[in-house]
Amino acid sequence: MSAVMTLPTYEERVAGFDWALSEEELGVSREGRVNIGWHCSDRICDQGRAQAPALIWEDFAGAGRVYTFNDLRVLSNTIARFLQSLDVAPGERVCLFMDRIPELYIGFLGILKMGAIAQPLFSAFGEDSLWTRLENAGTTAIITQKKHVHKVRKIRDRLPALKHVIVVDAASATLQPGETAMALDALPRVERFAVYPSTGETPSVLHYTSGTTGQPKGAQHVHYSLVSQYLTAKWVLDLQPGDIYWCNADPGWVTGTSYGIIGPWSNGITQVVLDSGFNTERWYAFVAKHRVTVWYSAPTAIRLLMRDGTEMAKRHDLSSLRHLASVGEPLNAEAVIWSKEAFGLPFHDTFWQTETGCIVITNFPGMPIKPGSMGKPFPGIKATVLDPRTFEPVTTPGSVGLIALRPGWPSMVRSYWNNPGGYANKFRNGWYLCGDRASVDTDGYFWFVGRDDDVINTGGHLVGPFEIESALLEHPAVAESAAVAKPDPVNMEVVKAFVTLKPGYRGDADLELEIMNYVRKRLSPLAMPQEIEFVASLPKTRSGKIVRRVLRAKEWGEPVGDTSTLMDE
Ligand code: 6R9
After folding, report:
1. Looking at the predicted structure, is the pLDDT value of residue 2 above 60?
2. d(C-alpha 187, C-alpha 172), whole Å
3. Distance of CA 348 from the midpoint of ligand 1 (Å)
4. DSSP letters spanning 467-511
5. What does the alpha-carbon distance between residue 405 and residue 266 come to, in Å, rounded to a whole number?
């Protein structure tokens, strides 16, 4: 029996679609009561899944713990009550600043249950990145770990709004005045808790996203986002009863909350979490051990898996996998083809943003995949590409324009915290602009070209980095690449490519020439890199996105802008 065969087609799903379908399944409405914390725990228990595993957690050393949905329910109550006991009030921002430990996931639900706004941040942030976001949000409480509290201590006197520093794994005696210990296991378990009577438009999550210049922006979401997150998780990630789901994103990135907490748990699905960085061998062993069925990953990770070859995948029993999906960057056609070889399954690309809150353009399970394309809009999402001069929809198939969405879907960002101008600037002619470029083909499939800021203007022709990087990736020596504009006296800009190599290759002039010749056949003359520079690594955000503007700025001798989300290499 194949589950895929019984799935509705894309057209069937789109026909007569209404978000009311999701509202009905969840029993919510925009005006009525809705609380994500309650929906991800209490409601699942009420549906008879109290004893089903919700979180199967493992740390880098392989030690683990299992939490049922009832544990989620009771322990999130416990954290909610604890925050109330400190006089944290509904609407206040509570920052989660932890590694991927259970308290992070359970704390997220607890904060929402007592009506405060959850502000997840990468625990790897240094004190400056942390300060910018806590200061902007006027955060009143932060929940952290012993190993990270020193960063909070360094900036606390510059954060007048920050009343509570809560440490989950330290004894009170080791803490400084004004810090509070919260050992979840030692607290009295709170069986019954009066969940805050949030309605659809009550603020829920504040996610900071980094712009190209200026300060990071705090995307403010509301509880009604659940309506989109629940249904997209069910349909796009194909979550079904009995699944073991793995989303390897950190909740500091929107993927780690929308689909690393809310999506799976509102569907009552068991998820596994590995609190450890990337390691191909370890990841395959993790999939095999837990019999993972659905895996949501990102191109940056997939390219690393590719670097290590199909043989490594074949050494593990990965037969439990049923559905694979990817987000964060364009998914190269080569990666889709490779994953079919390595796992017998294609990765399904999903496009969305912190601001969209949910997947908006995607390849559905069962829908024919065109490798290199992002797929089609999720039902209920009106997406198009706009002419960059007129902001009217482009009518010729294949022409490149700005990706734009008609506002109004449930999980759309409601504002940028403390930055109304930045929010207003995202709209033109009644469309929300994503800041990315794409074309749409005659079948309605979207093809990503590049972020607006990354497009290369060579002799008046616009070239997107994605097609160049995809061609480079097909060369057997290339592990990753970034194509950027470099100044040129004749053409204004020409293409320069930065390349990292697979193990066993040496970046010398011969290889540069060989790669040039290789991509020459695949690319138009305009898109051809004029220069290849071999590098040990590429600048990336903590969510794994290549940050081309850093490379570009160096070529132009310009300032690099905000670098607070960059991974330290
Ligand atoms: C979920 C997330 C959003 C930006 C987005 C685009 C890029 C994400 C993509 C993709 C091509 C995909 N992006 N998914 N580009 N294909 N499937 O990533 O949110 O961190 O806010 O980033 O990421 O440039 O505009 P966020």
Report:
1. no
2. 13
3. 14
4. HHHHHHHTSTTEEEEEEEEEEETTTEEEEEEEEEE-TT---SHHH
5. 25
353 CA to middle of ligand 1, Å?
A: 5
Q: Which atom of ligand 1 is nearest to the CA of 351?
A: 17
Looking at ligand 1, which atom is closest to the CA of residue 434? 25
Quick one: pLDDT band at residue 526, thresholds 50, 70, 90? confident
- pTM of the prediction? 0.96
* Backbone phi and psi for residue 219, each to the nearest 5 degrees, phi listed first: -80, 120
- Collapsed DSSP state (helix, strand, coil) of residue 121: coil
Q: Which residue do the tokens 């590429």 mark?
A: 538
Tokens at residue 371, please?
């490798």
- The Å distance, Cα 545 to ligand 1 centre, comes to 8
The correct answer on CATH 3.30.300.30 for the domain covering 456-556 is yes
Nearest CA, atom 1, ligand 1: 353
Residues contacting 536, CB < 8 A, separation 6+: 500
Which among 501, 497, 498 has a CA at the least distance from the CA of 529?
497
Q: State the Cα–Cα distance between residues 502 and 226, nearest whole angstrom.
A: 41
Span from the CA of 29 to the centroid of ligand 1 (angstroms): 28
Ligand 1, pocket residues at CB < 6 Å: 209, 253-255, 327-331, 349-354, 374, 434-436, 448, 451, 543
Of 63, 372, 423, the closest CA to residue 211 belongs to 423
pLDDT (tens digit per residue) in 397-410: 999 999 999 999 99
| CA proximity to 269, closest of 329, 195, 323, 193 | 323
What size, in residues, is the chain?
A: 569
Report residue 217: phi and psi, to 5°: -105, 140
pLDDT-derived band at 211 (thresholds 50, 70, 90) equals low
Cα(81) to centroid(ligand 1), Å: 36
pLDDT score at 172: 87
Residues 154-179: pLDDT tens digits?
A: 999 999 999 999 999 998 889 999 99
Task: Find the 39 Cα to ligand 1 centroid distance in Å.
Answer: 27
Residue nearest to atom 15 of ligand 1 (CA): 329
Number of other CB atoms surrounding residue 123 within 10 Å: 22
Measuring from atom 11 of ligand 1, which residue has the nearest CA?
330
Ligand 1 center to 217 CA (angstroms): 15
Q: Which of 352, 381, 411 to mutate to test the pocket of ligand 1 (most atoms within 8 A of CB)?
A: 352
Sign of CA dihedral 434, 439, 445, 448: negative
Half-sphere exposure of 67 (CA within 13 A, CB side): 25
Sort 486 into a burial class: Cβ within 10 Å, 0-12 / 13-18 / 19+: buried
Cα distance between residue 249 and residue 296, in whole Å: 8
Closest to 400 (Cα-Cα) out of 329, 456, 332? 456
CATH (residue range 29-224+246-277): 3.40.50.12780
Domain residue spans in the chain? 29-224+246-277, 456-556
Which H or E run contains 264?
helix 263-266
Nearest CA to ligand 1 atom 3: 353
Nearest alpha-carbon partner for 432 in 408, 463, 453, 459: 408
pLDDT tens digits, one per residue of 132-158: 999 999 999 999 999 999 999 999 999
